[in-house]
Amino acid sequence: MTDPGFYVTMASAALAGLAMLIFAALTGWRGWLQLKQQELRQDADARAPAPGNATARIEIADLKERIRRLEAIAAGVDL
């Protein structure tokens, strides 16, 4: 057991095993991130109004106008 070749072989095997574990963990992490991004995209698509819905566009424009007016009031600008 005092053979230096044995220790080099064991250290190399341990390093290779550690590299494989790190690679597997990194692959899993990337897959999990991709899954979460896909879920977020699906949620955003589900919440977005249909592009052909004119009523929704009018409501959004009205809300933007209200926000603009409130920001102007907060800034002290009289419209």
Can you tell me about this structure?
With 79 residues, the protein is mostly helical. The protein folds into two domains: 1-48; 50-79. The chain is 84% helix and 0% strand. The protein has helices spanning 4-47, 54-75. The radius of gyration is 29 Å and the shape is elongated.
Number of domains: 2
What distance separates the N and C termini? 88 Å
Radius of gyration: 29 Å
Task: Supply the number of helical segments.
Answer: 2
Q: Note poorly predicted spans.
A: none
Beta-strand share of residues: under 5%
Structural class, please?
A: mainly alpha
- Helix proportion: over 70%
The main pleated sheet reads as: none
SSE sequence, one letter per element: HH
Number of strands: 0
The rough form would be described as: elongated
Average pLDDT: 88
